[in-house]
Amino acid sequence: MLPERGPDGRTAAARRARRLVGTRTAWTAVGDGEFFCPTCGGDRNYQRLTGRRRFTVLGVPVLPRGVCAPTVECAACRGHFGTDVLDHPTTTRFSAMLRDAVHTVALAVLAAGGTCSRAALETAAAGVRAAGFEACTEEQLAALVEALEEDTGRFTGEPCVAGLSIELHEALDPLAPHLAAPGRESILLQGARIALADGPYTPAERDALATVGAALTICSDDVGRLLAAARTPS
């Protein structure tokens, strides 16, 4: 006759043995901060923990059984996660990254346009305000582009847009892995609308937008398709 098993699949003898002997993990907090909790679906406080396993008899630790991998514990749901969860930006940080990205793209496209027409400035300012810089004005963007052109020409002798390619990668490279394809395309299309506000793309504007697409990990064929679609009235 087979021994009777409980709901957990263990026999009564196995359950008694588990109560007598087992393994316990002692956790030690080594850091804290704020992270995006996958279980809660929002920003939460966390503790970074290290753990040591010990063999127990009657609940008393008697022998070390090694260390556990570092763990992140959510202060709200008490869920445990691998430390790679900290690579995901918090909601607050993600919003700031997105805002800075849109602002940098706007400056790069305006600088590439050469003259900063009123229509391009209005389109750029509207996009930057929608991204989070609510007080942004056309005059502020024009002054920034002018200052960038003066500083870049003075120190490097290169066109402003060439210097801004570094800023584009700095703003977009960390953001791209956390954006779905429609989000990455939306940033590129925002830049395209600025470029088209005062007429067809110039070669410098196409180069700037190609840099934006590359930093957003959009392949060159898709960049061409999106730029052509932005040029076609809906």
UniProtKB/TrEMBL annotation:
Domain Co-chaperone DjlA N-terminal: 101-225
Cited InterPro entries: DjlA_N, TerB-like
Protein's name in the database: TerB family tellurite resistance protein
Organism: Streptomyces werraensis
